[in-house]
Amino acid sequence: MNDKLIIAGKSYSSRLLVGTGKYKDFAETRAALDASGAEIVTVAIRRTNLGQNANEPNLLDSVPPSKFTYLPNTAGCYSADDAVRTLRLARELLDGHTLVKLEVLGDPQSLYPNVIETLAAAKTLVAEGFQVMVYTSDDPIIAKQLEDIGCVAIMPLASLIGSGMGILNPWNLQLLMERVQVPVIVDAGVGTASDAAIAMELGCDGVLMNTAIAAAQNPVLMAGAMKKAVEAGREAYLAGRMPKKLYSASPSSPTAGIISSTRS
Q1: CA distance 204 to 111
Q2: In the annotation, is 101 catalytic?
Q3: Whose CA is closest to 233, among 211, 206, 208?
Q4: Is this model's pTM higher than 0.90 or not?
Q5: Which of 161, 190, 233, 263 can pair with 197 through a Cys bridge, CB separation 3.0 to 4.6 Å?
Q6: Per the residue annotation, which of 10, 22, 24, 101 is the catalytic one?
Q7: Rounded to 5, what percent of the chain is helix, strand, coil?
Q8: Could you read off the pLDDT of 30-58 as tens digits, one per residue?
Q9: What does the alpha-carbon distance between residue 38 and residue 36 come to, in Å, rounded to a whole number?
Q10: 219, exposed or middle or buried, with CB in 10 Å at 0-12, 13-18, 19+?
């Protein structure tokens, strides 16, 4: 089935995007990425060594950019200025790489996005030639504004970052998907495979996750489960599920012409 995820003009076979943080070491990171089948991997520039610390293990050695598409993000940024500076640094560290994930947080407790600062940062980054995938709220109006600015993908939270609470806002996600034309990728809140499948069954173009895999008791096994869930959810969406019916019996086998027994 030729069903590719297209972001900024480039096609990807996997609709699962995976983070590189919170694993016990880079070896486990690589094993989980391989099991997930992910092609796009997120990297927290402020928390990951990409060569800026010469005496520390370098993620680039374990997760080579020749095999994976890096998506540097602004995790830990609380202002537009801070986010823009971080992604300018990412572009330098990654030899001019322009595909980035923008996230500007509102507070350290909930990690809910600050959409005002996010809009400001997006305007600056797009003007500077960045291809911006943007973490945001599930507000369809804000999503449309981010698309109009020029963001290449909208990434609404399903529930709070790292919460594992799953898809708490299916109606808002559907409203958002009706409003924008660029890919919609659920970002944050996925806890297990069924959550990923639900996101895909709703019609989302992809799912991004980190904690759901890295914090599992067996991250590599969970990564494989997430791969299957995203694929199954996508296929179910494309297939078109049967309509839901309340108290409407519809037997799987025909009833006409069956042999009936009579009692005397």
Answers
A1: 22
A2: yes
A3: 206
A4: no
A5: 233
A6: 101
A7: 35, 15, 45
A8: 999 999 999 999 988 877 767 666 677 77
A9: 5
A10: buried
Whole-angstrom distance, CA of residue 86 vs CA of residue 242: 47
Question: Can you name the residues that pair with 70 across neighbouring β-strands?
Answer: 41
Task: Please tell me the distance from the alpha carbon of residue 114 to that of residue 134, in angstroms, as a whole number.
Answer: 12
Give, in degrees to the nearest 5, the angle at Cα 23 between 216 and 152. Answer: 95
The helix (H) or strand (E) run that includes residue 164 is none
End-to-end CA distance of the chain: 58
134: three-class secondary structure by DSSP: strand
Calpha distance 230→236 (Å, rounded):
10
Which residue's structure tokens are 């609709």?
15
Tokens 């890295």 -> residue: 214
In this model, does residue 263 exceed pLDDT 80? no
With a CB cutoff of 8 Å and minimum separation 6, the contacts of 243 are none
